[in-house]
Design brief:
alpha/beta, TIM Barrel, 41% helix, oxidoreductase activity, oxidoreductase, Methylenetetrahydrofolate reductase (NADPH)
Length: 299
Amino acid sequence: MSILGFRKAVAPAPKSAELAAFLQGASIEVMPRTAEKVEDFAGILPHGTRVYIAHIDGTPIEEMVSTAARLRREGMDPMPHFPARIIRDRATLNNWIARYRDEADVDQGLILAGGLAQPVGEFETSMQLLESGAFDGFKRLHVAGHPEGNRDIDTDGSTKNVSEALSWKQKFSNRTDAEMAIATQFCFDAAPVIEWANGIKAAGIDLPVHIGIAGPAKLQTLIKFAIACGVGPSLKVLQKRAMDVTKLLLPYEPTEILSNLAAHKAANPDFNIASVHIFPLGGIKASATWLNAHAKDEE
């Protein structure tokens, strides 16, 4: 089915109750350096919010663990990234996990390959981390998803490798006691997201999807991140907005895409997108403010 044809099936913006329901349990992401700018997470996020901690190459594990421990103290549920390509060996992996458990009571993680072109040690893929057994006892494991493909993984522009990786992760989920889910790259258009989600479900992938969404930010900031992260067809949404001088200087907000996804979920309760994950590209406070405003039913 063509993207153009599929767009016609996307439902109009729903009532606020649908959007509020869709946003329940939404997660958000920080880095240690951005977390330092937040005085108190309990003051900007609901108690128990899952907060991913992005582990960028070069960030000391001490800063990662300290951030996780702080989030725990302030009533959040920390979920650190475990990027395979920045982990030197099994001893390093075991040390990280032990520290997260002992110092921050961490029992969940986002397992991914990471952005380095070449691994620094023995791990290259998220599958190698998962099959290592190091995460035995974790209650929740999330893995990466790419609704618009990933040119770093499939250099020919296909989805062959990312699809095979998802199939492997589905089989792994069938033999682990941990709850698993797919956390995706951020997107800007509901149509390709719905098409992708339906497609993986038809292919036998029944892992719940936590859809990645960019939080409020300047348009120029989003376009920069979108190009750097390889966002595909939905980048056109930003480019079209950039051509409208009446919108060029206004901050982007994810209300439209999330309203359309919420409407689709309300009309199709078995739709496999189970939650929303916010990438606070314009700052965590701006994203938290938007999330708190729209996660409440105003009707």
